[in-house]
Amino acid sequence: xxxxxxxxxxxxxxxxxxxxxxxxxxxxxxxxxxxxxxxxxxxxxxxxxxxxxxxxxxxxxxxxxxxxxxxxxxxxxxxxxxxxxxxxxxxxxxxxxxxxxxxxxxxxxxxxxxxxxxxxxxxxxxxxxxxxxxxxxxxxxxxxxxxxxxxxxxxxxxxxxxxxxxxxxxxxxxxxxxxxxxxxxxxxxxxxxxxxxxxxxxxxxxxxxxxxxxxxxxxxxxxxxxxxxxxxxxxxxxxxxxxxxxxxxxxxxxxxxxxxxxxxxxxxxxxxxxxxxxxxxxxxxxxxxxxxxxxxxxxxxxxxxxxxxxxxxxxxxxxxxxxxx
Length: 325
Ligand SMILES: [Zn+2]
Fold this sequence. Notes:
59% of the residues lie in helices and 10% in strands. It is built from twelve helices and seven strands. α5 packs parallel to α6. The structure holds zinc ion (ZN).
């Protein structure tokens, strides 16, 4: 599990708001009831005092058991009277309970010493939403990946069918120590689509995914280089890219060339590799071009440690546009 601190904190804040709202709604309801039935307020106060009596009895010593039994009987009698007053106003005890969004954990996020499903689900939704803001995650599912576009070329069709199967399998078995993948091939053959389909499945499983184009990462890395101490906290992008469970680096080679970014990308790829963390890189550069553009050691990391998937076919975006024209 690793959606990251930011998402966890946000989810906890959201739960806390929900808990406070539920509790103040219950307090308002009780107040309405006491206005109609001042006796009930009196009894509620006695119930509170009675509960404190138990501690007092223990501290004072004497026949504690007898004292506690007396307090218990009194407590039960007060409870019965309170319920009678409620029902005489057409209410039940449940009506004055706070209307928690999650009755199991009472909107605390934890139940029986474990993180509640509601908090897990909330983090999953937030992670999905955060990623969807810069990627068409909902459109890019395995179900929506159509092999029809590759049918005109039997070789491409077979290859893409194998790639789709491999990606589905990878997503189904995804873990924090899965292998890394290199999607290679011309633009418009579904590299982004399939990497996002994997991202969606990884998020569903509770993993923290960072997705972005090499261009957008390059801009963020450069900005942080010159803007240390800025409001976005220095080195945020770099540390996120290094530490996330799954990094998806899209369109490697389309970013503006920079020695600094090249070194930073090598460092990110290498650190993740040493830590055994999976990375998915897509590029339309050949291995030779990768070596020329970055470095021999960068290309050899990819060649040595990444499972390579070679995308074939005609630009499906072009075919899709033709179909609708
Ligand atoms: Zn819950």
